[in-house]
Fold this protein.
Amino acid sequence: MREIALNLYLDGAQLAADIARVEGADRVRGVLTRVEIEESSNRALIYIRALGRGEERFRTDRLENDSGKELHALAERLIGRLVRVYKELETVQGQPGERPSKVRMAVHLVDLGPADGSVSEKEAKDMMVQAAGQDRARAAWQAAGLPASGPVTMEQLETALAAQSATDVDGRGGEDNDE
């Protein structure tokens, strides 16, 4: 009984740490296009075509760790599907004398369904809020001609997000909290 209680406690502590990591992560949605192994670091590299943003690459934890191994296996199963990536920036120290750099780390993946379908109204609106900011999301949604309710096609959403991204580049838009 003592061993079971101790194992539950340890598993609970790890679960709490994992939940805290996901809660603090930013989100990116897109189609998972491929997964590779980076031999030099023993990490998986996850590539997604982020809606409205182009291709982005994320690293996993090291593959000798359970979290890295599990995320790699999940990513392999989700190739070609629409996913939500929970990501954080990690500082990586380079060679002595070099400035540290930041890399995108995937901490969790969620399967959002087939990539050839539509995006739910809630997911689409969340993405517009992320792209345009809370204050401008409704106007950006209407300016893009997206429907008042119901699902949105990936093509419609991609066009609307690209238009919003162009507005941001012109200096009239909000800030992008994803790197």
